[in-house]
Amino acid sequence: MADSAQAQKLVYLVTGGCGFLGEHVVRMLLQREPRLGELRVFDRHLGPWLEELKTGPVRVTAIQGDVTEAHEVAAAVAGAHVVIHTAGLVDVFGRASPETIHEVNVQGTRNVIEACVQTGTRFLVYTSSMEVVGPNTKGHPFYRGNEDTLYEAVHRHPYPCSKALAERLVLEANGREVHGGLPLVTCALRPTGIYGEGHQIMRDFYRQGLRLGGWLFRAIPASVEHGRVYVGNVAWMHVLAARELERRAALMGGQVYFCYDGSPYKSYEDFNMEFLGPCGLQLVGARPLLPYWLLVFLAALNALLQWLLRPLVLYAPLLNPYTLAVANTTFTVSTNKAQRHFGYEPLFSWEDSRTRTILWVQAAGSSAQ
Ligand SMILES: NC(=O)C1=CN([C@@H]2O[C@H](COP(=O)(O)OP(=O)(O)OC[C@H]3O[C@@H](n4cnc5c(N)ncnc54)[C@H](O)[C@@H]3O)[C@@H](O)[C@H]2O)C=CC1
Ligand SMILES: C[C@H](CCCC(C)(C)O)[C@H]1CC[C@H]2[C@@H]3[C@H](O)CC4=CC(=O)CC[C@]4(C)[C@H]3CC[C@]12C
């Protein structure tokens, strides 16, 4: 009996395990995965919080490494049963070059897949993104869509291009023979905009509001709806998908799943106010204060300034033509595919998610940079 319990212990690897989502996945695995024997946390930048996890019953191994280095990835993957690949360069502001985004998101993912094949790891869960689908460059709304909704996905920006390519690699790798002769089983999870503890853009909006005397100014019409999802629920979906991949390989292998929960559909700004309001900020204007053409002009100006200043300084404001287009296009998801395929139900209610996020914003906003 003791032997069979021992035999069931699994080794998990989480790439990007020190990022916003990755940290939640790591903590969720430790709390909710009973078969976990060892947890490897792979990241370019390791967080000091990992140390406190090393005192628990599960062996936690911190690995500083780069997904673009195939040998580092292979060494980390060797002997793991399951890989959750969340590492990625999330940049829609022009901080990194298109080449770097491609290298990390596409080549990094290729390295993870090849490492699984070479070392005999059979189960791979990939963190994709809603951006693989849209919003497209034409600004078509995606309203209450699901995984089968027809939508013209047209990408030009390096980030969605890279996520789409990487997702395709992961799905095409499903069924490949890994070392030892068994097939690789893969699936991809597509979060919409994630919020929750650790969400840096939310913290930045809060600090900006404080600097402006407690005011934020509406830029986008309230009628433009965004689907958002709480980070704890995204992490939970990763843990469940990873757990069920073996048992439900035929059903789940090669599949994509939007990440969803009970968060309300609202405009990006109104949704943020669910947290920033209770922290004392106010959103001014029932309608956008600036005409849309002026925002388009300012976004284009920012893009021009970024290009002109690049040799001297990095100028990467939140507003650019891409972020404006995303913020100004409805993208909401309504699906139950993850529930049907692997029994996913959100672990955190909307009220819980909201309270946790408010507490974090209050603490993060007032702490030093
Ligand atoms: N934040 C969001 O709203 C959404 C994020 N996603 C996806 O979720 C994943 C995680 O995103 P976040 O947690 O928001 O980003 P994040 O930037 O907080 O986390 C990414 C982590 O990956 C690590 N990383 C980056 N480059 C690396 C490299 N070359 N080698 C090893 N580690 C590297 C970073 O150090 C960081 O810890 C990404 O794949 C992203 O595309 C998908 C949908 C929405
Ligand atoms: C930064 C944008 C909001 C500012 C708009 C302004 C300047 C007019 O006030 C954000 C609006 C929508 C966000 C994106 C969306 O949530 C989907 C995403 C998915 C990802 O995989 C990565 C992040 C992001 C692209 C997210 C980025 C910030 C926004 C563009």
TrEMBL record:
Q: Which residues form a coiled coil?
A: none
Main localization is: endoplasmic reticulum
Compartments where located: Endoplasmic reticulum membrane
GO CC list: endoplasmic reticulum membrane; lipid droplet
- State the pathway, as annotated in the record: Lipid metabolism; steroid biosynthesis; Steroid biosynthesis
**Highest taxon in the source lineage:** Eukaryota
Give the catalysed reaction(s), semicolon-separated.
7alpha-hydroxycholesterol + NAD(+) = 7alpha-hydroxycholest-4-en-3-one + NADH + H(+); (24S)-7alpha-dihydroxycholesterol + NAD(+) = (24S)-7alpha,24-dihydroxycholest-4-en-3-one + NADH + H(+); 7alpha,25-dihydroxycholesterol + NAD(+) = 7alpha,25-dihydroxy-4-cholesten-3-one + NADH + H(+); (25R)-cholest-5-en-3beta,7alpha,26-triol + NAD(+) = (25R)-7alpha,26-dihydroxycholest-4-en-3-one + NADH + H(+)
Q: Where is the 3-beta hydroxysteroid dehydrogenase/isomerase domain?
A: 13-283
Asked if the Swiss-Prot or TrEMBL record annotates the protein with the keyword Transcription, the reply is no
Q: Which GO terms describe its biological process?
A: B cell chemotaxis; steroid biosynthetic process
Matching entries from CDD domains are given as:
3b-HSD_HSDB1_like_SDR_e (cd09811)
Q: Which residues cross the membrane?
A: 289-309
Q: Does the keyword NAD apply?
A: yes
Gene3D superfamilies, alphabetically?
Answer: NAD(P)-binding Rossmann-like Domain
- InterPro entries membership: 3Beta_OHSteriod_DH/Estase, Lipid_A_modif_metabolic_enz, NAD(P)-bd_dom_sf
E.C. numbers: 1.1.1.181
Database matches in PANTHER family:
BIFUNCTIONAL POLYMYXIN RESISTANCE PROTEIN ARNA (PTHR43245), SHORT CHAIN DEHYDROGENASE_REDUCTASE FAMILY 42E, MEMBER 2 (PTHR43245:SF51)
Its function, per the record, reads: The 3-beta-HSD enzymatic system plays a crucial role in the biosynthesis of all classes of hormonal steroids. HSD VII is active against four 7-alpha-hydroxylated sterols. Does not metabolize several different C(19/21) steroids as substrates. Involved in bile acid synthesis. Plays a key role in cell positioning and movement in lymphoid tissues by mediating degradation of 7-alpha,25-dihydroxycholesterol (7-alpha,25-OHC): 7-alpha,25-OHC acts as a ligand for the G protein-coupled receptor GPR183/EBI2, a chemotactic receptor for a number of lymphoid cells.
* Name assigned to this protein: 3 beta-hydroxysteroid dehydrogenase type 7
